[in-house]
Amino acid sequence: MKNKFYITTAIAYVNAEPHIGFALELLQADVLARHHRLMGDDTYFLTGTDEHGSKIAQAAEKHGKDTQLFVDEIAQTFIDLTKKLNISNDDFIRTSDRVRHWPAAQKIWQKLAESGDLYKKDYEGLYCVGCEANKKKSDLEDGLCPIHKTEPQLVKEKNWFFKLSKYTGVIKEKIEKDELKIVPTSKKGEILNLLDDAEDVSFSRPTATLKWGIPVPGDDTQTMYVWTDALTNYISALGYPEDPKFSQYWPVDVHLIGKDILRFHAMYWPAILLSAGVELPKSIYVHGFVTAEGEKMSKSLGNVIDPNQLIEKYGVDVTRYFLLREIPSDDDGDFSFKKLEDRYNGDLANGLGNLVQRVATLIESKLDGELVYKKEVVAKEVGENPEIKEFFDESGYGQLVNEFKLHEVLGNFIFSRIAIANRFIDTNKPWEVIKNNPAEFLEIMTVLAAMIHNISWRLQPFMPETSQKIFAVFGDSGERQIQDNYKFLIKKGAGLFPRLQQ
User: Fold this and answer.
1) Which of 170, 195, 224, 404 is the most exposed place for a label (fewest CB within 10 A)?
2) How far apart are CA 336 and CA 346, in angstroms?
3) Do the bridges between strand 4-9 and strand 254-258 make them parallel or antiparallel, or are there none, so unpaired?
């Protein structure tokens, strides 16, 4: 029986078109999903859009559009981005979908009510429209929301409240024992501290204030708080509670989110699930923010990076490679065009592209484009050459992926091996060897073909188009292991990564 792997991104908020931070999250989730498919796991990858809340209604009004029409248009830009980035998601959920999403959200609300965990009370406090969340004074910096740098509104209203405090002890224990694993561990400490001070939370707003959202079952004066609605997407997409897909894939293996929404995913969501009698997620992976040349991205500074423009200018796999390699998976990272072009020329053109070109050219010119693979030749080289032994040692790969260190997989695992392969050519000088020792030349080229196969196979989750191009150049079937006596047939095309003129 196959292992299952269910991974989700956070759903993107559709008050504006996609930015580079969400592109990074899509890519990170895509790598994990593709990796698990390669491992033979029954994989399900969900992304989608969060389409309710006062912020969206305000954005639609600002554009002079009907709210549903507005979210339809913006949601399409996110769907288009998943295609342009070559994201392998199995599903795309939209919270304005009254058929797929609303029934599950309202069912969860009813479960919370049945558990006695909802009560109505008058509320007076601070509310940040940007966060769609209530704020305590202790949450603010100089009276402003630390994320949106805006002053929260003072609101007075009667809302439904959820007994979050009833579940914080259980959640804390689950996180401490890694039964709900938080990655990286620095974020584990952060959420444990937040749980100590957790209070019951407002789970609805008056319909007069929040019209654009899911109605509270049995109370037409109230609309569900946007996070109550949005978090449910992870199970509504699986057809909770009755669809067989729900029992097949839940509990989720990885929720991949940005650090600004950790509170909602590691406090509110587990509490909702405990109240509703649903299993908790297995893990939450938390990534950081992307800055632009050291500055926070903002429209006022004119430094917002559009992922669509990157793809158009540099290509999808260059965009994928740079974001996944340059931005630490579990921390903040910085974007600059200079860094991107340096990585392109250094890593891709001079490193990977040059390696593929050199080896393909030698096989084409010296062996009439054909090379029969001999397993014992590679085994002999592995036994005699410590660096080649290191190259084919794959013991650290899976661990780095599972620890959410995707940047290290690319840097310390895959591209360090590309450097080993290029050194192997430079040290052995096959173009010289063939003049006096054709048999040794054949052995060198066999090892190099095996190296390129290994690199291409490992690159698939990160740069899927590039991997397929390399397999095509070598007539490689792309199977996990090369069969003995397999015949590589070279079909050279244009170079993979022509150098950029900076």
Assistant:
1) 170
2) 15
3) parallel
